[in-house]
Automatic annotation (TrEMBL):
Pfam families: SnoaL (PF07366). It comes from Mycobacterium paraffinicum. One of its GO terms (biological process) is polyketide metabolic process. It comes from the Bacteria. InterPro entries: Cyclase_SnoaL-like (IPR009959), NTF2-like_dom_sf (IPR032710). This is Ester cyclase. SUPFAM superfamilies: NTF2-like.
């Protein structure tokens, strides 16, 4: 098995935990200090950021559309979907379904995510629930 294949398998496992909203298992994929969009964080702080999102969109789901892997990076394009069932950024539940794009680049160190750069189309999300 090649390293690139291993990284694809690693990411598929991570994505399963993401879609199960299993924050503890997600955190196990991070280095002890992970940089998220340039900000150093511990794994628990990273996963805590998902809680308000999952509370407002309990069926939040990342569907991988594209993945590119090299010796130390994984780049993923997602279609993200969910149903607005709770308050999100001050907007009460609407029951509307949402679908947005997300692009994420992960840099790996010793088989764990050491840095993450994430771009989510929040404007599209807010438009769909407003």
């Amino acid at each position: 098995m090649t390293q690139l294949h291993d990284y694809r398998s690693l990411y598929n496992s991570y994505l399963e935990y993401c879609n199960e909203h299993d924050f503890d298992s997600m955190a196990s994929f991070y280095t002890p200090t992970i940089k998220v969009n340039g900000v150093p964080m511990d794994p628990a702080s990273v996963t805590e950021q998902f809680a308000p999102l999952i509370s407002a969109f309990p069926d939040w789901h990342w569907e991988m559309r594209h993945i590119v892997v090299d010796e130390e990076n994984i780049v993923v394009h997602f279609e993200v979907t969910g149903t607005h069932r709770g308050t999100f950024q001050g907007i009460a539940a609407t029951g509307r379904g949402v679908s947005i794009s997300e692009f994420t680049l992960y840099r790996l160190e010793d088989g764990k995510f050491a840095e993450v750069w994430d771009l989510v189309d929040m404007a599209a999300l807010m438009k769909q629930i407003s």
